[in-house]
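Late entry, written up from scratch paper. The run itself happened at the end of the previous shift, but nothing got recorded in the book at the time, so transcribing now.
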Amino acid sequence: MSLPMQRQQDSAGGAPPPAPAPPPVAPNLPGSPSIGNVQAGSAVPPGMNKLRQVTPGIKLRPLHWTRVPNQRLTESIWKAADDRINLINGQQLKQYFASTMVVKQAASTFLGSKNNDLIMDNDKARIVGIFLSSGKMAVKDIAHRLLDTDTSTRLTLDQITALQRIQPSSEERKKYEKVGSVNTDMHSVDAFMLELCKIDNLHHFLEVQQLVQEIPHHLASIPPLMDLMISACEEVFHPAFKRMLEYMLAVGNYVNSGTPRGNCYGFKISSLAQIYTMKSQVKGYTVLNYLIDTIFPHEKELERLPRIMGNARDAAGLSMRDVAMDVTKLESSLDRILSCANQIMAGKPSPAQQTFCTKILKVGQTYRVMTSKLTKKRDMMVAKLMKMAVYLGEVADDDPAELFIPIAQFLSELETATEKAAKATATRAASVKSAKATGGNGDGVASATVSQTSLPSVGPQSHAVSAIKPTRSGWMDKLGTGAGIVKIDKRWFELDDSGSIYYYKKEGGKPLGSVYLRGMSPPPALDESHTGMIVFFVEGKKWQLVSKTREEASAWLRDMLYYK
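Output as recorded:
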């Protein structure tokens, strides 16, 4: 929040809430006078009171704001704004917003005046110092909790990760062995490290504790993913999906007859998108609409495909290789746990360490049984996915789970188009009923309904029913990011009456992609800081489209809001 806005809140009455505790940085940063040190300002805008100036003394992170032009200040809220800079806690601001260079200097200052006498190097000492200032965990406590298997009192994963960063290397252990014991002149970080070196097999205990906490999570998260992909594979073999593909092949061969694309015996699953993107003479009417109008009345089960193949939709985005690799990593982690425990037992463990290792070995055997079952299920999942790839005429060497993506997209389009057709049918039925109720015979509406068995009449009738839904097309800039760089692509956009926006590299070309507006949340809005920019979110993805003028953007926004 900018300082002027903070002054506005203070003037509204009531004390500001207390700030959270500042991050741990070194006190008394060098060269940092109080923010209360003020100087006389200069270049005061006409009609405004002079602001007091401050000198923080160190470099702070900049707050990027846009100034109100001087000529507008006297007629704005800022004319009567109080200068409350003397109420700002400058020391806390510096602790929070010091630049990276200053924070690094502060971390060095943390080591105190004895840093020239450190046994460890300054970089490692700085990390240990931060650990001591934030965790405040004694070595005796660490040694005790390393052997603790109670989920409520054992070391947390964050603590284990922090300790793994600062654990002594073999060279550091040799240095501290020469020192022997802690003396009064020793720096606190050296004293801590010296005591840490006395814990035998520290790295083994840390690794065991980490893996013992991570393995249950993997054991719980992997099986549902495998079950989902296995069920999805079985749904692909459903007879209704096979019939759906057969009808698509028949339509494709009919429209492609007499061309090199005709006489096709099978198409790749990635071609499913053509069924709902291929344009007809009627805007918004596709091959999928044709199938729904002409085939579905005789094939009712095809309407239920999105529900029949629910798992295939949910499996979109999963990777067979990733899940199989997770099982392999789980097996390796389990081998590592048992290896570490056995290495500790092979030395001279204390009774407490022996008890800990005995528990770990027992837990490891339990995990081994569970992992063995996962391995068998993984092999079954891979076999089913490979069989599915062959069944669909795809290359089994690729990741077959990627086939669920075009299948899921098709099922979503099918569900949307089926719902739209059902609403159109209900609208026609209501019109017939209304016409008869007012004394008419409803012939005009009834004839439109009866004639849906032939393709030439299907499109215009469906278009007539949906004519009240807004459509739009035109050029806009599509903003995106890649490698941290904002990309601006000029694209031809078309909003159809299903609520989808398709975009093309050129008008009349092949669609590069689409977005279904029914999933917008929050609703789309104009970006006040950019003329002609529309911003909206669909399934968490941010979209930014820029028209030439604000009027064009407003027209697009109005039509898009219809489908939200």
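Confidence is low (pLDDT under 50) at residues 1-16, 22-41, 100-110, 441-467.
(Scratch paper discarded after transcription.)
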